[in-house]
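From the shared-data thread, chain only:
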Amino acid sequence: MIQSKKDYKEYYYHDLKQTGILNKKWHNRISDRRFKFYKMLRYTEYYNNCKNKWYHKIPKKIINIRYQKLCDKYQWTIPINVFDKGLAIVHVGTIVVSGDAKIGKNCRIHVCTNIGNAPAKGKDGAPRIGDNVYIGPGAKIFGGITIADNCVIGANAVVNKSFLETCTIAGVPAKKISDNDSSLYIRS
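Structure, as tokens:
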């Protein structure tokens, strides 16, 4: 979680690095929608976590509204303080994430992904996803489950149980299909 201006800059830098935006020329960077989104996401987190004086109340409201409008524009429901540094949104499209979920460093996420709460018996809560996890297009991850570091979640997988070892998971419902890790998908 961002606790200082230094953290804000570090998180933003890692987001751009993981997405590959830093490798682009400057005029191509600013035309990439994700460039603006990452900056706004991390600035909103910084402002909400670090600016707690009474006179920050109105600017904080304005920043939160601007962030929400940007999320609506890109069809992303990504609450603040959910993703650790290194978030990589691969394509613009629907992404829905619960505000209760916690996702580790260097997460690579594709379109039509849903990470949410599941009020089912024994599975209450939101997912805890480790570091360096690749989430394929259309994946649905829900419930109070844990996904280990370096896992790969295949396209259209429905993950409703914990996977505590590094592996590739896919299917409906998801199951382990190989011992491969996410090193092919995540930038080092």
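The helical segments are 5-19, 26-31, 33-50, 57-74.
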